[in-house]
């Protein structure tokens, strides 16, 4: 297979389209987020109709007069009438008449079978266990062997009048059998409505219908007349109960239809009031009827004078913004980011931020009322103290600058909505959000201090500048007001950084995110697990470093996360630490133990580094993405050396030879990252087997390994891995290995191969 490798030539992989749920599902989730944010952001206007604020028992200080002709629905009376209609409703139960014949047929077959079984037992043609198996398979009953023995050997069924039993079961079924009468829906006087195919709907009383407790009593009375022994009755009774089917069941659908019919027949209660009618005169005592009528009139007047509410515009604007946000992420190169998760986490962050803004608008006025400030302060300026940059800090740190920029524009619109459609606040929020986005990108995401630095060195100056300009451009501007606004801007910046610093670890845990910071932390080679690997398995340690180097280079070429791939490479062989002597790369330190083992034993030890590695990953609490490389870097390949050796030793006796015993148990690579680790692991190991490799040797090794994995179908389940991506990976490996194994010129003045003269 020729991949046309050229050293140093960069090949980029187009973004792979990943489907995570249907588009309708994503739009539905987005609609939920839009609705929640709109509800939180919406500030309802003050009512134009004054409420007198009266309570029962108060004395009216003025007349309450109807201002215009009104027809008012008395919703309380309407609801009361509907409630009465529902209380008078009789629930509907379905009566299945066909189950009666089914019960009779099963009983008839049971008696017939057990009679034949008795004959076969006595003639020793069958044993109890085969009869029990037949009962389980054909009747679906798990009958204890002791019960079968009693029924068969005692000739129990011969003592029972089958025709009389069938008639009894028919009569019980015709009256109807419920599972239980306890707690079931019923009408007044314990009445219900039965519906069947033959009789249609008919009223009935619960007392006329059996439940399973009644059937048990009836069956016990019937068996008592059959002169059976106590053991025979105990064995037979539960079996017969299994054949008697419940044929009356509550129908939610039919009952709901009856409810809808009943509610449809209840007409709303309307009150017609003429203009000028005095509802309550000055000096009268307010009673419940007065108060209810006043509330009805006030609600009706408000409804008739209401224009389209502002929340409609909020929903429309947010809906459009979220739609384009979703489409932008769907069409943008992923860069290793799961865009579906980004959309969901962004929506959650928008909701959390809106709640924070709303909480600040509630708390700040309370604080202002209890603190005496010697400056011109008002509630309107308090909005500059809201921590508007929290969400942008979270998205910028957890994802990338592009996501933070898009988030900033939508967040600015939400801030404007919450702050009573104030355009100045929109500009304030947008400038601050963009500042922290670029700030996090400037300080990078490798330390949590980047959050605080972006807040203090980028957001704070922008907030100070915007608030100062806002104060100086107001009509009643002054230095006192400007100082107050600037202080609020500083508070906003500080709170944004602190709250984001608290929420980001919470978001990482809740959404199981793997951030660059987390990857930097777990790839620190001074960690105890790597020091242990270096001490116990130095060959594996250096092998992991080389695999990491190869994998990082390939990740750069494919525009994946180099940090993630490096972490996967460093931990992929962590399971070898407990048994380092069994692996070739460590046998320069340890004696080879494989000659003393059979090929199967050797293969088991080699394969065991996968489950051992997963155990260590769980102990180290590695992210799931990193741990997946441990189980997938060998896919389902065979331990070929010991497999071939075992086949040689088998010498043609292949009947009991199981090749799966020599196969790794892990899954095949599921993502491009795992495929890179699999290939880098093999290429690095194979390259060490070359004594003095040249470019042709290196190219041959890379191509043969990739071709072999393709032939073994190891990439069948790998989403996003194309032949173009494989070509890019191969080129990256070739370039990296060529730089490692390049020929050096002889060191001047030295011949290291010449033996030292005595």
Description:
The chain is mainly alpha-helical and 758 residues long. The protein has 4 domains: 64-74 and 268-305, no CATH class; 97-246, no CATH class; 350-513, Arp2/3 complex 21 kDa subunit ARPC3, CATH 1.10.1760; 518-740, Hypothetical protein af1432 (Orthogonal Bundle), CATH 1.10.3210. 59% of the residues lie in helices and 5% in strands. It has 28 helices and 10 strands. It has helices at residues 23-41, 75-87, 98-122, 128-139, 145-153, 162-175, 212-224, 230-243, 252-264, 288-305, 310-331, 339-370, 390-398, 401-418, 423-443, 449-472, 479-510, 516-522, 528-536, 538-558, 562-571, 599-607, 609-620, 624-632, 640-650, 672-688, 695-711, 723-740; strands at residues 64-65, 70-73, 92-95, 177-178, 191-196, 200-205, 210-211, 248-250, 270-273, 278-280. The strands form 4 sheets. A 4-stranded mixed sheet has the order 6-5-3-8. The protein has a two-stranded antiparallel sheet with strand order 1-10. A hairpin with a 3-residue loop joins strand 5 and strand 6. Helix 11 (310-331) packs antiparallel against helix 12, helix 21 (562-571) packs across helix 24 (624-632) and helix 22 packs antiparallel against helix 25 (640-650). The longest helix has 32 residues, at 339-370. The protein is flat, with a radius of gyration of 40 Å. The relative contact order is 0.08. The model is unreliable at 4-21 and 46-50 (pLDDT under 50).
